[in-house]
Design goal:
globular, 256 residues, alpha+beta
Length: 256
């Protein structure tokens, strides 16, 4: 009985500590999100005041002010959308799982990324089917977030290389040609709204939730998303449970 009571006390203490940690994480997240929202909201307010006060006297500036106002509004909307996605990603009960070909999912997602980032070349290596059982829309979101990150840090004219295949697990690797991520920061890049003191972070011009959402969704599928050193820049590797466990071959195909 004493052993059972001690074990129950230990479990209760561990649960209380976990709850406190979760509450602290949520408070920090809300504080960071409010801080990030403050900048675009302040910009919207200043631009709206300029339009209200000076539009009649400075018609030559109305177009530029309107353009900036749309940009700041889009920035705020994107951050709010990312915050909602970050919360939803943790709810595994919302996954709509079905049989799919990971290689096909990746090819479609790369085609979209190539349209959105025409300054970067995308190379896809992986023509063999890679069977998985996943929520296709969520996996597209994972890959899209990683590709967006890679395209932002790859200089114009550079290449983002994407490889799909399977060994004991299905996998996708994305290699960019950016400044890379220091070893000490390779876990921190997945934290919500993190700022790194590195060339990669300084070159981005902002922060986001894309990689945090991507990792949360990967883990919701029983998989993982990690950051490592690539051949020239950073490498992100997504792994997902594979129904077959067999290796898949690969054949390169290029997209612009």
């Amino acid at each position: 009985m004493l052993d059972a009571l001690e074990d129950a006390e230990r479990k209760e203490a561990a649960a209380a500590q976990s709850a406190r940690r979760a509450e602290e994480d949520m408070r920090r997240f809300l504080a960071d999100a409010a801080h990030e929202l403050r900048t675009p909201v302040a910009g919207i307010s200043a631009l709206a005041q300029s339009l209200q006060r000076d539009a009649e006297h400075r018609p030559d500036r109305v177009g530029r002010w309107s353009e900036l106002l749309v940009g700041e509004s889009a920035r705020a909307s994107r951050l709010v959308g990312d915050m909602l996605d970050s919360v939803r990603a943790e709810n595994t009960s919302e996954l709509e799982v079905t049989d799919a070909d990971l290689a096909d999912v990746v090819r479609r997602t790369v085609d979209r990324a190539a349209l959105l980032s025409p300054q970067v070349r995308f190379e896809v290596d992986g023509s063999q089917p890679v069977p998985v059982r996943v929520d296709v829309g969520r996996v597209e979101q994972i890959v899209s977030n990683v590709l967006d990150n890679a395209a932002r840090f790859t200089p114009p004219g550079g290449t983002v290389r994407v490889t799909t295949g399977a060994d004991s697990q299905a996998f996708v690797t994305v290699d960019d040609e950016g400044p890379g991520v220091a070893e000490a920061d390779r876990e921190r890049v997945f934290e919500r709204l993190v700022r790194l003191n590195s060339a990669r972070d300084r070159s981005s011009g902002g922060v986001g939730l894309g990689l945090s959402i991507a990792r949360t969704l990967a883990r919701a599928h029983g998989g993982e998303l990690v950051c490592a050193a690539g051949p020239t820049g950073a490498r992100f590797r997504l792994t997902l449970p594979s129904p077959t466990g067999r290796s898949a071959g690969s054949t390169p195909a290029n997209h612009r």
